[in-house]
Each structure stands twice: as structure tokens, then as C-alpha cells.
Amino acid sequence: MPLDDVKDSNGNILKDGDSVHVIKDLKVKGAGETLKRGTLIKNIRLTGNPGEIEGRTATIKGLVLKTEFLKKA
User: Fold this and answer.
1) Angstrom distance (rounded) from CA 53 to CA 69
2) Please, are residues 32 and 41 in contact by the beta-carbon 8 Å criterion?
3) Which among 10, 35, 69, 73 is least buried, having the fewest CB atoms inside 10 angstroms?
4) pLDDT tens-digit profile of 1-39?
């Protein structure tokens, strides 16, 4: 199953294992925490949806983030 190209907010193609920065403060539902602008998310995984990636931070595991709020590190 070929995946569509997954692109960040600047149009850069993302791949499994890339690192990304958050470009906007994001409230995380269920965690009671906010991801601040500039937070680095390492070792991302692509989902079947070209508009989303999976990742983790030091405090939150199993994040699913929209690529429109990310830029490649």
C-alpha cells in the first residue's frame, strides 16, 4: 500500500523516523497539557492518513498530530 506524500506546513516531505517542531501552541485533549511552540518531536511514525503523524514527547505517549502544525527539524 503506497502512502501519499506526507508534507509538513512548509511542504517538506516527512518520512518515518524524522524529527519535527511544533509551530503553534497546541492543547492536548485528555492530557491536561499544552505542547508549546518549538517543542521537538523525534522519531515520528506515519499513519495511513497523509494529514497526520504519530509521535511522543517526554511526558505524552501516543500523540497523533496534524501535519499543518509541524515543520521538519
Assistant:
1) 11
2) no
3) 10
4) 455 789 999 999 999 999 999 999 999 988 889 999 999
Q: Are 14 and 4 in contact (CB under 8 A)?
A: no
**Predicted TM-score (pTM) of this structure:** 0.86
Q: How many alpha carbons fall within 13 Å on the CB side of residue 70?
A: 25
pLDDT per residue as tens digits for the range 29-67: 888 899 999 999 999 999 989 999 999 998 899 999 999
| Long-range pairs, 24-30, Cβ under 8 A, ≥24 | 24/69, 26/65, 26/69, 28/60, 28/63
From CA 20, how far away is CA 6, in angstroms rounded?
A: 13
DSSP assigned state of 67 = G
CA 25 to CA 49: how far, in whole Å? 22
